[in-house]
Task: structure prediction
Amino acid sequence: MKALLIVDVQNDFCPGGTLAVPNGDKVVPVINKLMEAFPLVIASKDWHPKDTVHFQKWPPHCVQGTKGSDFHPKLNTAKINKVFLKGTKNKDDGYSAFEATNADLAEFLKEEEVTDLYVCGLATDYCVKATALDADRNGFETFVVEDAMAAVNKGLGDGERAFKEMWQSGITLVKSDEVLNP
Ligand code: VGL
Ligand code: ZN
Result:
């Protein structure tokens, strides 16, 4: 059983948002198409309290219940079976979707008999990377869909380094075309 996990495709990470990822919105049509190939689609949301220590490292973003925390308006949310909320505590960054507090992601995937997890979304060098590495550690066959994600690139080359780190950990890099037309 395979599943698609969409990480943090939220307004604040897209152009016009408070922590906009360059080309963050470009992943939306790719992900909408990708969803068609999966019987199970889940998503994570960065979901911060307004006084979190996380905002000492980052401009405030994805504050619980604000417009910035909503999914991008073009994302086909009808296909999303369950949403996992992370970074929900005052003292946690919650980069990985496996740190979600409203439900246990690893347990959910095991109950659904997911063996192969495909990860996409925002941002490659933070939450996508952290989530993919955790998926691998939790024993899932892990794939990242390269053209369905975008990097913050706070430091030059961070996105490229993230791909390398994921690949070196045994994660498989794939393109959306290969997933849609196997
Ligand atoms: C993220 C920085 C801060 C992400 C979240 O979703 O990649 N990056 N919070
Ligand atoms: Zn955050």
Notes: The mean pLDDT is 98. The domain at 2-180 is CATH 3.40.50.850 (Rossmann fold).
